[in-house]
Design brief:
Blueprint lengths: L1 E6 L3 H10 L6 E6 L36 H9 L12 H18 L4 E6 L3 E6 L4 E5 L4 E4 L1 E4 L22 E2 L17 E4 L3 H12 L6 E5 L26 H14 L4 H9 L3 H6 L3 H19 L4 H12 L3 E13 L4 E7 L6 E5 L1 E4 L13 H8 L19 E3 L5 E7 L7
Parallel strand pairs: 1-2, 1-7, 2-3, 7-16, 8-14, 9-10, 9-14, 10-11
Antiparallel strand pairs: 4-5, 5-6, 11-12, 12-13, 15-16
The structure holds flavin-adenine dinucleotide (FAD).
Flavin-adenine dinucleotide binds next to α1.
C-alpha cells in the first residue's frame, strides 16, 4: 500500500487529502497537523465572529461543478438569508471545509484510510524509495510521496530594530503569537506595524475584545486595503489582458478602470483573477522586480479587500480617532517605564515623530524568502539540497504541477507543494 504524507492540514492540505480519499486503489494518507481540526489552518481557526471572509460566498464553492455549493450549504446550516454576495465569518468557512472533508472521508473505500497526526514535521530526508519525516515527538514515518502544505510563514522581524524592548513582553513578533491580542490595557495605545489585512484583523480583534485605546497602523505607504462595495456591483465586464511588458499592462488596467467610472476597478481586478499567474510568469525578471518595487503595494490594496462590515468598523474607529494610519518607517524603539517609545520617520519627511504605546505587534506580510525561515523543517530541506528558492527568492522553486525542484534543477519525484510556498 502506498503512503502519502501531507505536511499541514489547513485548507490546502485538507483539500489534497479530500482529493486522495477518492482513490480507487489501496492508499494510506497521513496528515501531520498540530491543530485539533483539519481544514482550518491559520485563516479559519479564528473564533472572532467579526473576522469575515474577504471574498463573497458565491466565489467560495469547493465543488467545481456546483458554483453555488457554499451558498446552499450556508442556507441549510447557518443563514437562511445567505446570498452569493454574503461575507460570512471565517470560522463558518472553516466548518464548511471540515464538512466537505468529512463527507469525502465517509465515502472513501475501506482500503483508503486517513490518519491525522497532531504533531509537527521538523526534518525530512530523501530515501532510496520515498521520504522519511521526523516528527516533533522524536518519532518518524516513511512515505512514498510528500505534499508540503505548510501555509504562510510568520512575518520577518528584520523590519523591527534590535533592542531590549524585544524581550519586554510588549513586543509581539506576529499578530498570531500567543497573547498578542489578549490582556491588552483597555485604554493603552497599540502600534500595529503594517496596514494590510493582518493589521485590520488585529484591529478588529482588539475592538471586539473591549480595547478602547488608540491603534496606530504604521506602514511604508500608509495605505489601507480597499473595501468591497456594500451592494453587489453589476456584472463583470469582458476585460482581459494578454501577456505584455509591465508598463503596458499597468497602463491598460488604469485605462480600463478609468473608462468604467466609479467603482469600475472592482471589475477590472476581478476580471484579472484567473489570468494573474500567467501574466506574472510571462513578465521578464526585470519587470517582475519593477512590479514588486513600484506596483505591488497598489495591487495588494485593490486585490485583497475588506468585507463591507469590516470596512465600516474601521471607518468608524478612524472617525473616532481610535485608528490612526501613518505612512513611515520605524527607526528606533525605546523601552520606557510605562511602555514603548517608538520613533517613526514619516514618509518623505526628515524629522521623526514619537508614538508612546503599550505594545507593538508585527503585522507585516509573511516572510517570502524561505531561506530565512528558522523552522528546522526548512533549514534541513535547504541543507540537504532538496528544495531551492523560487523566482526572485520568493517561495520555493516548483514545476507548473507543484513538484519541487532541487538547486541542481532536478524535479524531485514525489515531493510537492501548493498554496503560499508557490508565491514566486
Ligand atoms: C489571517 C488570514 C486571513 C485570511 N483570510 C482569507 C479570506 O478571507 N479569503 C481568502 O480567500 N483567503 C484568505 N486568506 C488566505 C489563506 O491563506 C488561504 O485561503 C488558505 O487558508 C491557505 O491555506 P493553507 O492550507 O495553504 O495554509 P494554512 O491555513 O496556513 O495552513 C497550513 C497548516 O500547516 C500547518 N503546518 C505548518 N508547518 C507545519 C509543519 N512543519 N508540520 C506540520 N504542520 C505544519 C499549520 O499548523 C497550518 O495549520 C487568509 C489568510 C490569513 C493568514
Amino acid at each position: 500500500m502506498r503512503t502519502i504524507l501531507i505536511v499541514g492540514g489547513g485548507v490546502s492540505g485538507t483539500l489534497v487529502a479530500a482529493g486522495l480519499l477518492r482513490a480507487t486503489h489501496p492508499l494510506h494518507i497521513v496528515v501531520v497537523e498540530p491543530r485539533p481540526t483539519l481544514g482550518r489552518g491559520l485563516a479559519y481557526s479564528t473564533r472572532c465572529c467579526a473576522h469575515l471572509m474577504n471574498v463573497p460566498a458565491g466565489k467560495l464553492s469547493l465543488v467545481e461543478e456546483q458554483p453555488n455549493h457554499f451558498v446552499e450549504w450556508l442556507r441549510e446550516n447557518f443563514y437562511s438569508w445567505a446570498t452569493d454576495y454574503s461575507f460570512v465569518p471565517r470560522s463558518v468557512y472553516g466548518r464548511y471545509v471540515g464538512d466537505f472533508f468529512a463527507v469525502r472521508r465517509r465515502a472513501a473505500r475501506p482500503d483508503v484510510d486517513l490518519q491525522h497526526v497532531r504533531l509537527e514535521v521538523i526534518r525530512m530526508e530523501r530515501k532510496a524509495a520515498g521520504y522519511r519525516a521526523y516528527l516533533s515527538d522524536g518519532s518518524s514515518l516513511s512515505a512514498d510521496a510528500v505534499v508540503l502544505a505548510t501555509g504562510n510563514p510568520p512575518p520577518s522581524d528584520e523590519v523591527i530594530p534590535e533592542g531590549p524592548f524585544r524581550r519586554s513582553g510588549r513586543y509581539f513578533p506576529s499578530a498570531w503569537h500567543p497573547g498578542a491580542l489578549e490582556c491588552v490595557n483597555q485604554h493603552g495605545a497599540v502600534l500595529l506595524l503594517g496596514s494590510g489585512l493582518t493589521a485590520i484583523d488585529a484591529a478588529v480583534s482588539l475592538e471586539e475584545s473591549g480595547h478602547r485605546g488608540v491603534i496606530h497602523l504604521v506602514s511604508r505607504h500608509g495605505l489601507l486595503p480597499r473595501a468591497h462595495p456594500r451592494r453587489r456591483p453589476a456584472n463583470a465586464l469582458g476585460f482581459g489582458l494578454r501577456p505584455a511588458p509591465l508598463r503596458q499592462l499597468v497602463a491598460q488596467v488604469r485605462r480600463e478602470a478609468a473608462r468604467t467610472g466609479t467603482g469600475g476597478w472592482y471589475h477590472v481586478m476581478d476580471a484579472l483573477r484567473a489570468d494573474t499567474p500567467r501574466l506574472w510568469q510571462r513578465l521578464t525578471t526585470e519587470d517582475q522586480r519593477r512590479f514588486l518595487r513600484h506596483v505591488r503595494v497598489y495591487w495588494d490594496v485593490h486585490r485583497h479587500r475588506m468585507a463591507p462590515d469590516v470596512a465600516s468598523m474601521i471607518a468608524r474607529m478612524t472617525e473616532q480617532g481610535r485608528v490612526q494610519v501613518h505612512a513611515g518607517r520605524i527607526q528606533q524603539v525605546h523601552l520606557g517605564p510605562a511602555g514603548l517609545e517608538v520613533e517613526v520617520r514619516p514618509r518623505g519627511r526628515p524629522s521623526p515623530k514619537c508614538l508612546s504605546v503599550d505594545r507593538l505587534i508585527n503585522c507585516t506580510a509573511p516572510e517570502s524568502d524561505y531561506r530565512k525561515l528558522k523552522h528546522p523543517l526548512w533549514t534541513s530541506l535547504f541543507a540537504s539540497r532538496l528544495i531551492d528558492a523560487g523566482p526572485l527568492g520568493m517561495g520555493l522553486k516548483t514545476t507548473e504541477q507543484g513538484e519541487l525542484v532541487s538547486p541542481d534543477g532536478r524535479v524531485l519525484a514525489g515531493l510537492f507543494t501548493l498554496g503560499p510556498p508557490r508565491l514566486g
